[in-house]
Amino acid sequence: MHNGLTVIYAKENATVNIIKIQRLGDSSQSFDSNIAYVEGNGKVNWISVELGSYISGSNYRTYLDGEASGSNLSSIYLGDGIRKMDLEYTMIHKGPRSISNIETKGVLKDNSKKVFRGNLDFKRGSRHSKGVEEEYVILLDPTVNLTLFQPYYVMKTMWKGGNMQLVQDKLMKINFFLSNE
Fold this sequence. Notes:
Largest sheet: 7 strands, parallel
Number of helices: 0
């Protein structure tokens, strides 16, 4: 069993790159929480790989506190057998001109189950900020259980643009772009 916590403080003009690979055995449980605080012109780049563990819960929360702060989160996952995954990625925009990008790609087969939450949260003061969230899923079996939550927290009409599309058959693409201009 793994129960981990990573906390990152990216000071002004700093760039921090974090790569996490979870490949525990099929009978293991993994719960991993990750938090980043990003100051002005700072940047945090997350790379997450979820390949193992019977039950896996991953949480990434990035606070874009400073002006022109940024964060990218790129993740891939494989759900097979009776594997259960819960993935929650949140970018909280507080500083003006902050930029975030969440890109998730995965494959699900057999009787695997996955819940995905990609959150873009624009707080007061985050004027001219932008956030993008995309997920690509390949479904290899009709028995796969897939749950998606797309809650975008935006203060009153402060955002523009946005589209969501579903590509039929075995490839699903979910794409959303928010601009707080």
